[in-house]
């Protein structure tokens, strides 16, 4: 008999692993983009990419089918020389490609390193919460960002890609090296500002000066206010969402992956 405190084997099997977490109290949304600005941004990007000729090319090489091991060929086939030009594969302009961040993962890494100067996200991303983290990242880095409808449809074809869910423009050391400087300068005034109420008015904390006492202990030196009559700008009120517990169950349908059968 099992001990009263320990669960039985049946109870252990019934228990499904789940992760519990709190939902975010802040509601982050992309600012709406006017239709005129949307058409201007898409046209500017498409014209720039077509004029540059930036495209990813992939040359498919014909490979003959491998015959089964059991059957032996009657006549040994003659080896067909395969000539593959590696220069044709890849991006047409590597230097221009390095100034772009394409895709959600690449854009996220570039934002974390503070390497972007402009960010455009496609509105048709599904699920929508996959790009919500870019709102806070771009706001804290001071990078203008917006959600553009039909971005993937307009940009993916000139670039030779299947889809472009996010497109970022990297910072350049000098304006002469930047190929997309004129494009970024033209699009920036059209990008609406992101509304992040809990980040407005936030200032980085200044380090507190430390002094050593006679006994070897350190104490924080308080800074005196120069003028107490300075007006303090009131930050806008931020409405918080109700805090809820989110329970994530992995594989709720309990579908087991079948083992691949070995071919004889």
Automatic annotation (TrEMBL):
Q: Which InterPro entries match?
A: Ribosomal_eL30-like_sf, Ribosomal_eL8/eL30/eS12/Gad45, Rpp38
Give the source's domain of life in one word.
Eukaryota
SUPFAM superfamilies this protein is in? L30e-like
Question: What terms describe the molecular function in GO for this protein?
Answer: ribonuclease P activity; ribonuclease P RNA binding
* Domain (Ribosomal protein eL8/eL30/eS12/Gadd45): residue spans on this chain: 94-150
List every stretch annotated Disordered: 1-32, 65-89, 200-264
Q: Basic residues bias located where?
A: 253-264
List all Basic and acidic residues biased stretches.
216-227
Biological process annotations from GO = tRNA 5'-leader removal
Pfam families membership = Ribosomal_L7Ae
Where is this chain compositionally biased, Polar residues type? 17-26
Q: Which GO terms describe its cellular component?
A: fibrillar center; nucleolar ribonuclease P complex; ribonuclease MRP complex
- PANTHER family membership: RIBONUCLEASE P PROTEIN SUBUNIT P38 (PTHR46948)
- Kindly provide the name given to this protein in its UniProt entry: Ribonuclease P/MRP subunit p38
List the lineage, top down: Eukaryota, Metazoa, Chordata, Craniata, Vertebrata
């Amino acid at each position: 008999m099992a001990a009263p405190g320990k669960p039985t084997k049946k109870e252990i099997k019934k228990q499904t692993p789940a992760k519990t977490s709190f939902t975010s109290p802040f509601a982050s949304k992309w600012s709406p983009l006017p239709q005129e600005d949307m058409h201007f941004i898409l046209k500017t990007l498409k014209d720039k990419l077509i004029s540059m000729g930036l495209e990813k090319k992939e040359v498919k090489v014909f490979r003959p089918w491998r015959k089964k091991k059991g059957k032996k060929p009657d006549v040994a086939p003659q080896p067909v020389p395969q000539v593959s030009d590696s220069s044709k594969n890849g991006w047409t302009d590597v230097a221009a490609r390095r100034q772009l961040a394409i895709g959600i993962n690449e854009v996220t890494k570039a934002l974390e390193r503070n390497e972007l100067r402009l960010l455009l996200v496609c509105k048709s991303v599904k699920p929508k919460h996959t790009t919500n983290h870019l709102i806070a990242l771009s706001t804290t880095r001071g990078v203008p960002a917006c959600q553009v409808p039909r971005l993937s449809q307009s940009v993916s074809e000139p670039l030779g890609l299947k889809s472009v869910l996010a497109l970022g423009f990297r910072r350049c050391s000098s304006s002469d090296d930047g190929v997309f400087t004129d494009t970024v300068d033209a699009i920036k005034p059209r990008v609406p500002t992101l509304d992040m109420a809990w980040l407005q008015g936030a200032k980085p904390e200044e380090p507190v000066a430390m002094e050593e006492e006679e006994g070897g202990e350190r104490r924080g030196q308080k800074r005196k206010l120069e003028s107490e009559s300075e007006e303090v700008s009131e930050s806008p009120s931020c409405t918080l969402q109700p805090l809820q517990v989110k329970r994530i169950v992995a594989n709720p349908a309990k579908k087991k992956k079948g083992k691949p059968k070995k071919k004889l």
